[in-house]
Write a structure and sequence with these properties.
The complex is a heterotrimer of chains A (116), B (319) and C (472). Chain A is mainly α and 116 residues long. Chain A has helices at residues 6-28, 32-60, 69-102, 104-112. Chain A starts with 5 loop residues before the first helix and ends with a helix. Chain B has 319 residues and is an all-alpha fold. Chain B folds into two domains: 1-77, no CATH class; 132-302, no CATH class. The chains are: A mainly alpha (116), B mainly alpha (319), C mainly alpha (472).
């Protein structure tokens, strides 16, 4: 059993629940955009978990650091990776919706035809 | 006690917003709730002694992701209610998620309360890293390979986005917002410069500064200004690529400087030059991040298309 | 010199973005130079033993750890050589297929991210490499234009979900041990609920990304929708990245009891992949889907070998696992290039267009048949070598009847889907006429890896030696 303080335990619980909520949203959907949002909620939960774990340092008084800088740097890297992936996913989604709304009928005919 | 009350309130709100965003019937509500969630998350991180991250989350997590999602919403045209998910369809995933969550919680409770060996190690080696802010030291010296690859991820997302970018949506900008945005621009540049400079010794750094710059540029772009800021402009391409380019070239130079040693070490900065190298890399990285993030948000089909079909219709060039 | 393996593709990709005109030549140059460097590194490591690096020269734990053992070097060599081959194919067909400019920087970056992945021994750095690999792969799939957008989108979402599962596992481990490098973690490893759940989460994410049954559903659509050279790269290399990390986790980190507990699951998943993948390949009406389902099935061999390796801890089975990966990579590159070439020339995606292809495009068909022989495991191909090593490893364990029988059944299934194509191609009564005169150079390029996979038999001794030297 852990001896984390009350606040920390609370944040830990919240982070794990956020991940769970995100996973639920990812499975349920139903729109693709909401799945992307759900993925972002999962990553926010994981990053929050990292921030909470980084905060452990300040309680112990072992070092004079406010928080574990390694974990914080990892979160920063993760944030940029997450926003990049989200942007790409949204661009794909926009393209998907554009092509399915504008030219659904002729496109489907064309798909079964040979390419060249 | 009041702090615990504040924490409880914050956590409760975070959970409620996330849940509401997942469950709301309307997609636009989901996006708005998500942005509120992101801002609150930034507050939570500020509370947890992570001001760097709070800054980044507010700018990137809530701000840019929000802008991205709104752009996606705008493309969808008229908004219908989401299709109803039946009770049975909800039941099994919920059960699955609850079981997983309890497993995860059991694991989390076993995590020791004392941190691992790395924070102490960072503190011990900080003096030789060239900067005094530990997070910056980790990002650009101790684990700089991660950061280099991360810049590459960002660039790659841009390449992918440009490749599939749909035709732009026509929207008119609002006269008032146009004049306000012009006022905003110099302010943001000033602020971004400060955040970048401060990063060497206190919270701040390339990513936060880049995200700030990008936020300003996005506002201007959406108001039909900064027309030169597009992928077809060779200088924009140059600076988008220069963040990585300068990083690699600096690393190569540092590598060659040690060349006389038997076994040169990749990405090792000479201690006396480390400060300048890191500042140089950060400056170019900031510009690259700002440009890339801006282009990601306002991605439009480039004139020199990367994608297959448009090249087809142009008759196919020969190179 | 070894650092050029990473710097060269990175700088060339950046230059390609600035001057798209020179992109193809630059990409080919970078791939060729990297292949030579990779060969040199392999020889050096084979001679002097495994090399370790701590990046930026900081103490262990703080720095990102790299390791070049013979397996990593072989995989680097494989990635660079296939990159060169596929690049040549894309160059040879550029005027016909109108593959977009985006292909060159993206494929070069793919090579870079794979090299970074094979070298890295740091859990978080591996996460960044995984994300990089996933994004490059999706961007490459979306090169096909409109029809590929939906598979690409699904691929991206699942790939992101997989990465997040992996990341959560890494965070749990960091919370428990405060370390990220694999060697350091392995020395402090304790079996328990915490490490169990971290391992399970990471494996879930990696299995999703490696398309290991039952998490393979995204693969056929994505690999079939991509342009031919891209499908070759995806099937041959990209799915092997997560598989590599999976092996690192279970062979280096997991305690014996954990490994023993997980082994039957891997073995069962491998067997199921062999059966269901083979069955779907037998049923699909589209040529590229057949090859893609065959990838699902062939990954089953690797998963099965991983499961058996964890059960028996037999070095020969470890060698078999990676022989499968090498043989499959070469054979699958040949298959996708050959099928792509035939679809382009004969005009169509359905399997029926291959009717009489042995007459109209004998070279490409020959390439497919030869590569198919290795997929089946006909002696003396690379596929046979792998299966033989696996059987030998099982034999050394004494009375094993079930697994050899299962292998024989799987072999029959793969023979069935390969012959499905071959029989059609030899139906010369009413061959499908080509839309234009078949080009020779691309067909030869498709044949090259197929011949290489048979040549693996000639190097069986050194290959087995390289892969048995040390278990990672």
């Amino acid at each position: 059993m852990t001896e984390l303080s009350g606040s920390l335990l609370l944040f830990l619980l919240t982070a794990a629940s956020l991940v769970a909520i995100g996973v639920y949203g990812f499975i349920i959907g139903p729109e693709p955009l909401r799945r992307i949002l759900a993925l972002n909620i999962i990553s926010a939960g994981i990053f929050m978990l990292m921030v909470v774990l980084a905060y452990r340092t300040s309680g112990s008084g072992a070092t004079e650091l406010a928080a574990d800088p390694v974990l914080q740097a990892l979160v920063l890297t993760g944030l940029v990776v997450a926003v990049s992936a989200t942007a790409f996913a949204l661009a794909l989604l926009a393209r998907l919706e554009q092509s399915s709304s504008e030219m659904s009928a002729p496109l489907q005919l064309k798909q079964t035809e040979p390419e060249q | 006690m009041s702090l615990l009350l504040f924490d409880t309130l914050l956590c409760g709100l975070l959970l409620a917003l996330a849940l509401a965003s997942v469950l709301s019937r309307q997609l636009s509500h989901a996006v708005i709730l998500y942005i509120a969630f992101g801002l609150l998350m930034a507050m939570a991180w500020a509370r947890l002694a992570a001001p760097d991250l709070a800054l980044a989350e507010a700018a990137i997590g809530a701000g840019l992701t929000g802008a991205l999602c709104f752009t996606a919403l705008a493309r969808q045209g008229q908004l219908a209610l989401s299709p109803v998910v039946s009770w049975q369809q909800r039941c099994w995933p919920a059960l699955f998620v609850l079981v997983t969550l309890s497993g995860l919680l059991l694991a989390l409770l076993q995590i020791p309360a004392s941190p691992g060996p790395l924070p102490a190690l960072v503190l011990q080696e900080l003096a030789g890293s060239g900067v005094s802010h530990p997070v910056t030291a980790v990002l650009l010296n101790f684990r700089s390979w991660d950061t280099l690859l991360e810049l590459l991820v960002l660039l790659l997302a841009l390449l992918g986005t440009l490749q599939v970018a749909p035709a732009p949506v026509r929207q008119n900008s609002w006269a008032l917002s146009r004049s306000w945005s012009q006022l905003l621009a110099p302010l943001i540049i000033l602020l971004a410069g400060y955040v970048l400079w401060a990063g060497a010794s206190q919270p701040g750094g390339a990513f936060q500064a880049g995200a700030l710059l990008a936020a300003g540029a996005v506002v201007l772009k959406l108001n039909k200004q900064l027309n030169w800021l597009a992928w077809r402009n060779i200088w924009v391409r140059f600076f988008a690529v220069a963040g990585l380019g300068v990083f690699v070239i600096a690393a190569l130079a540092a590598w060659l400087l040690q060349g006389l040693a038997a076994e040169p070490v990749w990405l090792r900065w000479p201690p006396q030059l480390a400060k300048y190298i890191i500042l140089l890399i950060e400056t170019f990285a900031t510009l690259a991040i700002a440009i890339t993030l801006t282009l990601l948000v306002v991605a439009e089909q480039p004139d020199t298309p990367l994608s297959l079909e448009t090249q087809d219709s142009a008759g196919g060039s020969d190179d | 010199m070894m650092i050029l393996l990473l710097v060269l593709p990175l700088l060339s990709a950046l230059l390609m973005l600035l001057w798209p005109r020179i992109a193809p030549l630059l990409a080919l140059f970078s791939a060729a130079a990297s292949s030579l460097l990779a060969l040199q590194l392999l020889l050096q490591v084979a001679e002097q033993g495994t090399r370790y690096w701590l990046l930026a020269g900081w103490p262990s734990g703080l720095a990102i750890a790299w390791q070049a053992d013979t397996l990593s070097c072989l995989l680097i060599l494989l990635s660079t050589v296939l990159q060169l081959l596929v690049g040549l194919y894309a160059f040879a067909t550029r005027s016909r297929d109108k593959l977009s400019q985006g292909f060159w920087p993206l494929s070069t970056l793919l090579q870079l991210s794979l090299t970074a992945l094979w070298l890295s021994r740091d859990l978080f750095n591996l996460y960044v490499c995984l994300e990089l690999l996933g994004l490059v792969a999706v961007a490459l799939v979306s090169l096909s234009g409109r029809k590929a957008i939906k598979p690409a989108f699904n691929y991206l979402l699942l790939s992101l979900f997989g990465s997040l599962c992996y990341l959560l596992g890494v965070v749990l481990l960091y919370g428990a041990y405060g370390l990220l490098d694999i060697a350091g973690l392995a020395s402090q490893w304790q079996a328990g609920w915490l490490s169990n759940s971290a391992l399970l989460l990471m494996s879930l994410g990696l299995m999703l990304k490696a398309a290991i049954w039952p998490l393979h559903a995204w693969l056929p659509a994505a690999h079939a929708a991509a342009p031919a050279p891209v499908s070759a790269l995806l099937s041959a290399l990209v799915v092997k990245g997560p598989l590599f990390i999976l092996c690192l986790l279970w062979l280096q980190l997991a305690s014996t009891s954990q490994a023993q507990a997980m082994a039957p699951l891997f073995a069962a998943a491998g067997l199921a992949a062999l059966l269901f993948g083979g069955w779907s390949a037998l049923r699909t009406p589209f040529a590229k889907n057949l090859v893609a389902y065959s990838t699902v099935a062939q990954l089953g061999y690797a998963t099965l070998a991983l499961g058996l390796m964890l059960t028996f801890d037999q070095p020969l089975i470890f060698a078999a696992l990676w022989l499968f990966v090498l043989a499959h990579a070469l054979a699958k590159a040949a298959c996708f290039l050959a099928i792509g070439e035939m679809s382009a020339t004969l005009g169509g995606k359905r399997l029926t267009i291959l009717k009489g292809a042995s007459q109209t495009m004998p070279l490409a068909m020959f390439a497919f048949a030869v590569a198919g022989g290795s997929l089946i495991g006909l002696p003396p191909s690379g596929g046979f070598l792998a299966k033989w090593a696996l059987l030998q490893g099982l034999w050394l364990q004494g009375e094993q009847l079930f697994w050899p029988l299962a292998l024989v059944f799987a072999t029959l299934l793969s023979a069935a889907y390969v012959f499905r194509v071959v029989v059609l191609a030899f139906d010369r009564a009413d061959p499908v006429a080509p839309d234009f005169a078949p080009q020779l150079v691309p067909q030869w390029l498709a044949l090259l890896p197929a011949l290489a996979v048979w040549a693996m038999a000639l190097f069986s001794e050194p290959l087995l030696l390289l892969l048995r030297l040390e278990a990672l």
